Amino acid sequence: MGGRIIPILAFALAAGACTDGNVEPATTTSSLTTTTTVTVGDPAPGLLAVVDDAGAIVVMLPDGTERRTVTDAGTDQNPAIYMQPVWSPDGSSLAWGQTTGTGFGLGLTRLGSDLITTLTTPNLPFYTYWSPDNRHLGLLHNGTSGVQFQIADTEEETTSLIDENAPLYFSWSPDGDRVVTHAGPSGVETVGVEGDRETLEPTSPTYLAPQWTNRGVFHVVDDQLVVEDGQGGREVLAEVTGATMFVSNASGTRLAVQSTGDGPGPVTAALEEVPTTPTGVVVVLDTATAAVDVASEQPAVGFFWSPDGERLLVLATGDGRVEPLVWETGTVRTYPAYIPHPTLLQTTFPFFPQYAQSVSFWSPDSSTFAYAGAVGDEAGVWVQDVEADEPVRVSDGSWVAWSPGP
Predict the structure, then answer these.
(1) Residues 142, 75, 71, CA angle at the centre, nearest 5°?
(2) What's the pLDDT tens digit per position in 51-91?
(3) Beta strands 93-100 and 81-87: pairing type?
(4) Which of 193, 232, 317, 320 is deepest in the core (most CB within 10 A)?
(5) pTM of the model
(6) Does domain 1-205 have CATH number 3.40.50.300?
């Protein structure tokens, strides 16, 4: 547990020393073949990647059947930690952070293969995020003076150090050749996979991760939620107050927003006006019309868009539990409350605007979502159809990610 928690807490350090902008790439390459066989057939949508209670990574169908072991769990003789497996955008591969007897690294496997490739890293990667073109991964791990950001090239089997700062968040461009980073309190720049960089106008320290969509780059500047078009143009979408969490759907047409500061209620936008988002609730903002709709009257520990961008899963808080809500235009449906797995409360939900970009808890057809936690007195991985009243337990485990699909 301690090996997992400590690196994650560094993800949101309030301050840290900046690097000089001329970080020397540190490139390491290695590979190994384990005795584990990964055989789940051709890449297909509708698979769950789970870290089970023993600490092994397993892949299964959404009903819990046809389980295939990807990594064996660590033992007293051969200790190992495998962290948060995430799917490539085409669903063909898995990546995860690990520490084993051979050291720290990024684990990679292509489904249908029995080969696991490990790219060596200086410390345990506590966060991994695939590029949209399926070739690169952004990695975050502890450094000497903050969080280190590396980019791994899965074709060349190399890793390159891009930056070190605290805090440090990033988002891939839609074509996968650049990232936008929020590094330190107000630094923002775009960085190419080869390391070339462009510094942008300062951003605000009151949010976590920027998000790059076809609509542009969403971030916060001077209590305004804005979108940058990459050509120097900036559009103000809403006024926000205090610490602000936001997540865009994949197309950039809707933003889910939660602000904590004291401010007025929502304002109907007209002509040149923009709305002011209410505080202490979760709202959905239409980025074209500026219409604001309340998705949850309660604050949330996280919210996540469905792949089609039409539904929003809100994990609302209350009575020491999380109540899943699904917002869809004009409706909000409530599902049985649960207690999230402790590691998610410590390592994932505090940084959910970053995780919402790299992992899906939704099925590819946007009809079902999954989570790890305890419903009543039974813990495990649960699958909830949006049309059903109750979830179904499909496995034990502390982590679940749903594969993408067409």
Answers:
(1) 70
(2) 999 999 999 999 999 999 999 888 877 889 999 999 999 99
(3) antiparallel
(4) 193
(5) 0.87
(6) no
Do the beta carbons of residue 62 and residue 361 sit within 8 Å? no
| Per-residue three-class SS string for 180-191 | EEEECCCEEEEE
Q: Which residues are registered as beta bridge partners of 117? A: 108
* Helical (H) or strand (E) element with 406: none
- What tokens were used for 253? 């047409």
For 175, counting Cβ atoms within 10 Å of its Cβ (0-12 exposed, 13-18 middle, 19+ buried), the class is: exposed
DSSP-based three-state secondary structure for 167: coil
Task: Output phi, psi for 89, to 5 deg.
Answer: -60, -25
Confidence at residue 315, expressed as pLDDT on a 0 to 100 scale: 98
What residues does 333 pair with on adjacent strands? 326
What percentage of the chain has pLDDT greater than the value 70? 86
What number of residues does the chain have?
406
pLDDT of amino acid 79: 87
pLDDT at 401: 98
Strand partners, 192: 178
Q: How far apart are CA 215 and CA 208, in angstroms?
A: 19
Amino acid (1-letter code) at residue 350: P
Q: Residue 397: CA atoms inside 13 Å, Cβ hemisphere, count?
A: 28
Question: How many angstroms separate the CA atoms of 304 and 322, rounded?
Answer: 14
Tokens describing residue 371: 């989570």
**Cα separation, 127 vs 351, whole angstroms:** 11
Residue 332 contacts by C-beta under 8 Å, 6 or more apart in sequence? 295, 296, 325, 326
Query: Residue 195 and residue 201: Cα distance in Å, rounded?
Result: 19
Do 226 and 206 form a contact (C-beta atoms < 8 A)?
Answer: no
Alpha-carbon gap, residue 304 to 326, rounded angstroms: 10
What are φ and ψ of residue 111, in 5° steps?
-60, 140
Instruction: Measure the CA dihedral 90/300/309/48, to 10°.
Output: 30
pLDDT below 50 — which residues of the chain? 1-44, 263-272
Cα–Cα distance, 139 to 127 (Å, whole number): 6
Instruction: Give me the DSSP letters along 270-282.
Output: -TT---B--BSSE
Per-domain residue ranges for the chain? 1-205
